[in-house]
Specification:
Shape: elongated
Strand content: over 45%
Helix content: under 10%
Mean pLDDT: 93
Largest sheet: 5 strands, antiparallel
Distance between the termini: 30 Å
CATH topology of the largest domain: Jelly Rolls
Low-confidence stretches: none
Radius of gyration: 21 Å
């Protein structure tokens, strides 16, 4: 089957013929575009007790999608909480903050948290942020979060 590729493509031009895969132009040839879906774990560690409302951010090096309810994300603490503190997960772009979800930590547990939220998309250079609760838990300390996304 012959395809009618564009005659004068620009670099990174995509072409999807009927019934065929997507091709991308990488001068001087057309190549099959790879479809890669890979896990994108974003890890945070908070040493000691987090300060009230403290913000912990990382810059994303690739595009990714964070699923609804932060599905697949994980939490661990060395010193369990006495209450049920809520940590918020945000995307920050150009000073604008968009909430992606929350970790509500289960009192007395080192690994159990209720996950919620709509999730969202991250572009290269966006900040993924975790914000500590507005009230400090009496005991919670040394906390690890992994927000699991999918690389897009």
């Amino acid at each position: 089957m012959a395809f009618n590729f564009p005659e004068t493509p620009s670099e990174n031009t995509e072409y999807t013929p009927a019934g065929g895969p997507t091709y991308v132009y990488k001068s001087p040839v057309w190549m099959v575009k790879a479809i890669i879906t890979a896990p994108a774990p974003f890890a945070f560690f908070i040493s000691g007790k987090p300060a009230v409302g403290a913000k912990y951010s990382i810059v994303t090096p690739f595009t990714a999608t964070i699923p609804a309810s932060l599905a697949g994300s994980r939490f661990f603490t060395s010193t369990v909480s006495t209450g049920a503190p809520v940590f918020t997960v945000n995307r920050v772009v150009g000073g604008t903050t968009t909430a992606f979800g929350t970790f509500t930590i289960t009192a007395g547990s080192a690994t159990v948290a209720t996950l919620a939220g709509s999730g969202g998309s991250l572009a290269v250079g966006d900040a993924l942020q975790i914000v500590a609760p507005g009230t400090q838990d009496a005991t919670l300390a040394d906390i690890s979060f992994t927000v699991l996304g999918t690389r897009t």
